[in-house]
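Exercise 3.2. Students should predict the tertiary structure of the chain below and write it as structure tokens, then compare their answer with the key that follows.

Predict this chain's 3D structure.
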Amino acid sequence: MQTKNFTLIATLLLPLLLNGCLSPASEEDAAEESTASAPADSESATAAPSSSDTAQQSTPSTSEHESDHDNESDDESDDESDDDRDSETTPSTTSDTTTTSSSQQKKFTLLAWNDLGMHCVDGKDYSVFSILPPYNNLHAQLIADGKLISEGVTLTYEAMIDHNDSINTTSVGKSNFWEFAGQLYGSQPAADIGLTGNPTPSTIANPLQYNAAQAWFEAEGLPIFPVDDQGRVNYYPMVKVTARDSSGVELATAPVVLPVSDEMSCSACHAANSPPDAKPSSGWSSESDAEKAWKENILALHDERQAANSQYQNALTKGYGSAGLLASSQQGKPVLCASCHASNALLGTGISGITPLTTAMHSSHGKVKDPGTNRLLNDSENRDTCYLCHPGATTQCLRGAMGKAVASDGSSAINCQSCHGNMQQVGSSQRQGWLDQPDCQSCHHDGQRELVAVNADGSLKKWSDQRFATNANTPASGFSLYRYSKGHGDLQCEACHGATHAIYPSSHESDNQLAIAVQGHSGTISKCDACHTTVPFTTTGGPHGMHTTGQRWVDGHENSAEQNSAACTACHGSDYRGSALSVVTRSVTFDTEWGNRSFSVGDKMGCYDCHNGPKDD
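Answer key:
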């Protein structure tokens, strides 16, 4: 297969096999479309830079939509202002996302996020074969007094020090990717430059571009590896995003994790001296480098099993030698898996008639036994099976609120299969990899949080309640993905709920830094005054059709509740005593006409906490 100059697809982002599942049975009400952890798609999504329309003007322009936070419940919010924090210079360990410009006297809130809970790289070696390149994505939205800003500002990104004094400012020497990038991906960027021309985050501030179609600022294809400047493994390197006006005055900053893992590995079954089922007839590779060895074992096994396949022989004529894929790589021509097995993450890949990558990987390996437990991978209902290949046993990609959910027996309440189905279902020939993904409304509906998003046949559950639904036909007709959906004030869902697989609050400290900087605590960004200078009073105009939160609602909600009490049931339950959607995630005290009412974490807030029912004065 001849090397193609692949156009990196702009509608699908890169994190190939991330792990986790996306089931909204979490502490927060956000559901995510997950690019997959273990039954996820086994391909990488490399997104092409979209057209940039950033215009530099002296006065920032705003959209007409007011922007609160994408929050499904109003429980944990209070009306206290966040303390002002001094923004730091990189490298730094903290960052304030809300500042007031002395020149313009406006409140600016900067929200930034990585599109997926984990991006993956092929490890250190690209000389044998590649599934995906180093390719991370960074998105951001800037709010001024509750309205989105798209013009008259400049946004940049740079590396920053995390709470463990770790900083990652270069990818040089951490991989041989740049030595083989041209042969694999048809593009030969300089070291520390990604396939879209964007550099690895460093101590130099580099620009994000404005994407008018998505209404966000972006830096696509950032090449970064999970090794910091001191040589320590860090799967969660941090960057600082900074917004400045046309005069260069700093408006706000935001700390963001750019997650990346090299745990995407097949070594559990294909390393030398693994179970004999995966041993090539020619024997295990003698390569001394362990990563190269298991990759060579895979190519050798592929060659021998497909030797009599005329379609395979024909594919070899399109860029690889007739002796097979292993011989090709040993002769200096590395193999790109997607050059034969199409991936929706890499536009223009694949050969007609050859099984797509995600279908081939999941359907065939669903019949394989976990060498550690001897259970069929397709039968397993725990994420550890998925972590055999997806990142991973150490990375623990599914680390957000859903991943943290615990059942009564102490086990994980939500696993990869809860949202993606089993491996055979993920590998169905009827499924479109990277597009057929779980959606929010399969678990979040009618005041409920389901623990399983799929039916027995692997299809998504359907409900009539669309309050917490992803945007229909986004990013393509027939598909609705969380990471492209937007809601209140045209804010992206991920801006306030967090990235796929890392929904706030995350079990990893660095993931929570932005939410803490914006509103003083982790969890869904839900405090109205995090974005609004003057908190608006509304009954249905907030995120997901919600009301104003905090003390202001307590002070003035009586008429709204009495005249339309049925609307309260969506979050406070049919009995008005609270539900999963009104669980308090931050201790708070409200001043009521009957004295102070305090709520602790875990309390289900309802009408009866202060009243004798919804219509009681």
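Discussion points: The two ends are 75 Å apart (CA to CA). The CA atoms of residues 281 and 301 lie 8 Å apart.
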